[in-house]
């Protein structure tokens, strides 16, 4: 065991705020029963677990090999889960719809195809990502051309929810192979112990060859970049769409309307930047995570118009007791 230094404060803050975020989104889901709320609750739970692992490792004074493996895997997919939650929200609001899912297929298909094509020269396992990603890209192009030639009614097209379901299935498909590689990849045990439990990012894996990253680390962009594009690009586009609709109705913009999107997008962008810098050896991940989750949680509170009284009710689990009471009252005798 060791005493926490100043850096150790940030995982504690991140764990606490992500726990509050998890409770708040869970409460919202029980009220509204929207799929994106459930997915976001799962993503905040993952955020809480990974931040907790960081804090625990600092307390232990080293990174336990098993904890590190689980930490790295969950940290990689949590961004994709956040992105999936954003896509389900946009599908629900018809921002992603039958008219533009072809473009979305092409966008994400190209991202996965690009990285899988590069990485398959390092490890053949990435062919299992490259082939379906290429088909996804071609399917998107076919949908776009089909709508242009045959008209919308007579063409092949996916709904927003169908596209998002495909996105989720594909990130889980990639994650399954990442888990397979991650549970068998060799760890640099000496480095994990010598780290003192400090931030190690992906440097706890032994490189395949000198100067070449371990194969497990190549899976991270396949999760984090599509997830980041969906989350960050999505919320900023949502704000833009909101403002455009307001101007169309009223003749002028109302920049305060929907500004919570900017908070959420800005927080996600801070996390993305911190994660990228951490991968190159800059120890700013823990700080970036704390800043990110605080900003995103503030954006969430603004979006749901949560008052202090309601926040206290959430923190004391009063909403959970109320939910149980409602279920009992409507259950058959």
Descriptive notes:
This protein is an all-alpha fold. Helix 9 packs antiparallel against helix 10. The chain has helices at residues 9-32, 35-60, 65-92, 101-119, 127-150, 160-182, 189-194, 215-218, 220-250, 260-279, 285-303, 308-315, 318-330. The chain is built from 13 helices and no strands.
Overall number of domains: 1
Rounded to the nearest angstrom, the radius of gyration is 21 Å
**Total number of strands:** 0
- Indicate the proportion of strand residues: under 5%
Give the overall silhouette.
Answer: globular
Main sheet record: none
Features:
single chain, about 325 residues, mainly alpha, Rhopdopsin 7-helix transmembrane proteins, about 75% helix
Q: What's the gist of this structure?
A:
By secondary structure, the chain is mostly helical. The chain contains 13 helices and no strands. It has helices spanning 9-32, 35-60, 65-92, 101-119, 127-150, 160-182, 189-194, 215-218, 220-250, 260-279, 285-303, 308-315, 318-330.
What is the secondary structure topology, with strand pairs?
Elements: H1 9-32, H2 35-60, H3 65-92, H4 101-119, H5 127-150, H6 160-182, H7 189-194, H8 215-218, H9 220-250, H10 260-279, H11 285-303, H12 308-315, H13 318-330
